[in-house]
Amino acid sequence: MAVSTHYAYQKNPATKDNPWVKWLLIFIAIAFMMVMLVVPLVSVFYEALKDGWQAYQAALLEPDALSAIKLTLITTAMVLPVNTLIGVALAYLITRHKFRGKFIITTLLDLPFAVSPVVAGLMFVLVFGANTLLGGWLESMGIQVIFATTGIVLATLFVTFPFIARELIPLMQAQGDSEEEAALTLGANGWQMFWKVTLPNIKWALLYGIILTNARAMGEFGAVSVVSGHISGETNTMPLMIEIAYNEYAFTLAFALSSLLALLALVTLLVQGIMSRNTRH
């Protein structure tokens, strides 16, 4: 009888929630996601397509819209390789080397998460503005940073560079360096060890970080808004063009560009789910 009671206790521990608690939590979660995520997302696509497919296409083919899409793609294409190299280098430095001041680097790595993007954009204006020492010197050399593509790329680099490193550091710390030490012991040089051992072990986390960086780079608004100058046809990215079009009551254009960013977000979530599954495996 005692054994039976103990078995029943194991099957139904006192800490197990009642079924109504589980269903209440499920209801709250679904209701919240419907109100905050699904309904707004569906509304964006509805507003973008309510005037018909031809109006949708015409909006996206407007010169200002094409310029915004082009600038967004160019910025992302420039940011991703740089952030990938910096992220991998920082992760390897932090997890594979011991040195004084490591905590300073790990703290600074989180700075873009702690600082408002608008403040980040303002910092670049204060450093590279035309009236500053460095900015004035660069402009005398024919290099304009603020109110140009260069400033947009720098601001986007700042707000996105921690993502890859922050994805890799926990994984590399958990994996340890035993396999890499074994490769070196067997005669591999540093590059052979990295390409044959380190990179295959971190590839899924690296891809995951690249996807997050790509999504943030395309959707960044605050820092880019400060350094861009909102020059029509030149320095407006997709998020900036959405705000401008909406304020000018060009709702079809605003929602058409919003739908493109939403599609990118959905694709990102899909690939992110695949990456997470592969990372767990």
UniProtKB/TrEMBL annotation:
InterPro entries in the record: CysW_permease, MetI-like, MetI-like_sf, Sulph_transpt2
Membrane topology: Multi-pass membrane protein
Entry GO MF terms: ABC-type sulfate transporter activity
Main location: membrane
Subunit relationships: The complex is composed of two ATP-binding proteins (CysA), two transmembrane proteins (CysT and CysW) and a solute-binding protein (CysP).
Function: Part of the ABC transporter complex CysAWTP (TC 3.A.1.6.1) involved in sulfate/thiosulfate import. Probably responsible for the translocation of the substrate across the membrane.
Protein name: Sulfate ABC transporter permease subunit CysW
Organism: Moraxella porci DSM 25326
Upper taxonomic lineage: Bacteria, Pseudomonadati, Pseudomonadota, Gammaproteobacteria, Moraxellales
